[in-house]
Amino acid sequence: MDAVVSIDERNNISAFNPAAERLWGYDSAEVIGKNVKMLLPPDMRATHDSFVDRHRKSGQDRIVGTSREVPIHCKDNTTAYARLSLRRSVTAAGAQGYTAYLTDMTEQHRKTTDTVEVMRDLLDQIDRLTTGINTIAQQTNLLSVNASIEAARAGDMGRGFGVVAMEIRALSNQAKEITLEIENVVESGRQSVGKLAQEATPTGQGG
After folding, report:
1. Is CB count within 10 Å lower at the N or C end of the chain?
2. What residue numbers bound the domain in which 40 lies?
3. Do residues 54 and 27 share a domain?
4. Is residue 86 within 8 Å of residue 99, measured between CB atoms?
5. Tens place of pLDDT per residue across the chain (207 aa)
6. pLDDT at res. 23
7. Shared domain check, 157 and 84
8. 0.70 cut: is pTM over it?
9. Which letter does DSSP use for residue 26 in this model?
10. Angle ∠(159,164,167) on CA atoms, nearest 5
11. CB-based contact 182:130 (threshold 8 Å)
12. What is the pLDDT of residue 88?
């Protein structure tokens, strides 16, 4: 069941269902009649009333009618996460209230965060490996150049060794090309992980 929180025209909590009690850790008796900002993260509390009142006056739906993930500041000072949908209601007397429907996303958020960290760690490991391969390729290329010089000095007797040195150099260049492709894949992976992390970061004000 979704958590449901309703507020009246004074931004005081008028409804707080059992799912909301489980999400925030408050009993309904602790919150009914109090300003809804007590349920918000501390950094959002100072501006919340003005934000809601501005919507009442302007009717501009920046959050109302949309769905987004928001942080939940729990009673025990831990942070949960929920998918918020906000609806406006108007009484017969014209008073405007709001009802928030919240689906607990804490476990999904944790799994996403853990996955992002694992992916970042794997990409870092691949990056370190490609750096090592690149270093070996550079050293191998340098050795093959030196071998080619010595083979040239040896004349006909060093001709066969010179051919081998050229093959080694060719393999070294191929290794460089492969590591470059891997580095491009790693960079693409970092961008994808960054996008995933950004999408997993809750934004906006909760209800």
Report:
1. N
2. 3-104
3. yes
4. yes
5. 799 999 999 999 999 999 999 999 999 999 999 999 999 999 889 988 888 888 777 766 566 667 788 999 999 999 999 999 988 888 767 788 999 999 999 998 888 888 888 888 888 888 888 888 878 777 777 777 777 776 676 666 666 666 777 777 777 777 778 888 888 888 888 888 777 776 666 655 443
6. 96
7. no
8. no
9. -
10. 130
11. yes
12. 85
Return the structure tokens found at 24.
């925030």
Q: Is residue 183 one of the residues assigned to a domain?
A: yes
Q: What is the largest CA-CA distance in the chain?
A: 106
* DSSP per residue, 133-192: HHHHHHHHHHHHHHHHHHHHHHGGGGHHHHHHHHHHHHHHHHHHHHHHHHHHHHHHHHHH
Q: Do 63 and 85 meet the contact criterion of CB atoms below 8 Å apart?
A: no
**Tally of domains in the chain:** 2
Residues 13, 6 contacting (CB under 8 angstroms): yes
Contact status, residue 5 vs residue 84, Cβ threshold 8 Å: no
| 169 and 134 housed in the same domain | yes
3-state class of 98 per DSSP? strand
Domain presence at residue 207? no
CA torsion sign, 124 to 125 to 130 to 132? positive
Q: Which tokens is 142 given?
A: 């340098």
